[in-house]
């Protein structure tokens, strides 16, 4: 799967990564290595640093299984996730690019015809990164 991702990166207009937040905040060394490889791959493309900036702006990190993180550890876990992502994903405005949610809770709410706040937030952020990516592409195309 990693090779498929790497081959597709030159065509990607946005990037979304789902993190299992229950495993050490979801940011084990292998995830940091993968994000670093993605960063290096994009940097090696024509217009690399510009592409990295675009991908950093149009990225979204979904921290899943949030319901399994104890209430008293959530603030600490959020700070840890943001800190670690900043280390391995430079150039991103992570305050607006991370969603903490439980897909289990979202599915339960959907079965009853509702939508959780977290799922609604995810949909809004997906919309934002897609619109941002379209605007960046249009701007670059007409330059």
Kindly report the CATH topology. Rossmann fold
The number of strands is 3
CATH architecture classification name: 3-Layer(aba) Sandwich
Q: How big is the Rg?
A: 16 Å
Uncertain runs are: none
**Shape type:** globular
Structural class: mainly alpha
Describe the structure.
- Helix 2 packs across helix 3.
- It is globular and about 45 Å long.
- Helix 4 links the parallel strand 2 and strand 3.
- It is mainly alpha-helical.
- It has a three-stranded parallel beta sheet.
- The longest helix has 25 residues.
- The chain has a single domain, classed as Rossmann fold, CATH 3.40.50.
- The model has no long low-confidence stretch (mean pLDDT 82).
Features:
globular, 143 residues, mainly alpha
Short précis:
By secondary structure, this protein is mainly alpha-helical. The chain has one domain (3-142): P-loop containing nucleotide triphosphate hydrolases (Rossmann fold, 3-Layer(aba) Sandwich).
How would the blueprint of this fold be written?
Elements lengths: L1 H7 L6 E6 L8 H16 L3 H10 L1 E6 L9 H15 L9 E3 L2 H9 L5 H25 L2
Parallel strand pairs: 1-2, 2-3
Helix pairs in contact: 2-3
InterPro entries: P-loop_NTPase
